Amino acid sequence: MQRRSFIRAVASVVPAVGLHDFLASQACAQAAAQPQTGALRVVGAGEDRLGKPHSLGFSSFVFKVLSEETGGGLFIIEHTHLIPGGPPLHLHLNQEEWFYVMEGEVAFQVGEQRIQLYAGESILAPRRVPHTFSSVSTTPSRMLIAFCPAGKMEKYFRDSENASPPADQAAYFHHYDMEFIGPSPFWKA
After folding, report:
1. Does domain 54-182 have CATH number 2.40.10.170?
2. Burial, 92: exposed, middle or buried (Cβ in 10 Å; 0-12, 13-18, 19+)?
3. From 150's CA, which of 76, 92, 102, 125 has a CA 20 to 30 Å away?
4. Alpha carbon distances (Å) from 106 to 5, 54, 90, 169
5. Which candidate, 128, 122, 134, places its Cα nearest to that of 88?
6. Do the Cβ atoms of 134 and 107 come closer than 8 Å?
7. Mean pLDDT on 56-75
8. Taking the model in full, what pTM does it have?
9. Average pLDDT over residues 5-30
10. Tens-digit pLDDT profile for residues 21-45
11. Mean pLDDT of 87-105
């Protein structure tokens, strides 16, 4: 819907006396969602935005763009040492997840489709579509992953780092607005 059409539709429904207040509250909400401006911060090659690398076992990773820097609109990590294994098959209720392979070869399953990507290639896993991935290189792979909007993904990575596997993975994933589908089809028995 075009912005003008939306305003006309709202104006026809909202009494003229309340229209000004409604539009002012919408403008304030949009302004509050905008990221804070400030000094630029360069995050160097292999560096973490907070100065501390992270791990989930199948990969080492660094935060490149924090959720708070984009008003919750985007969260980006770099997998720096992706080895065979990868996360369980899962889906995100509220985020698209974009993958960009920087080095190596990575196998993906998105929905029912399986595909292998090489350096310089990318793929998007839409929200509510099950997906997983695994390095299939003889050497570790490296890739960027972006979550849009950020949602609870930064918190998930912080909370999951070096943690013991949860007894109830489905409940654990649900806490972060994800759905656990099952083990990765790339895991070796």
Report:
1. no
2. buried
3. 102
4. 44, 20, 17, 24
5. 134
6. yes
7. 89
8. 0.77
9. 47
10. 544 544 444 444 555 556 788 888 8
11. 97
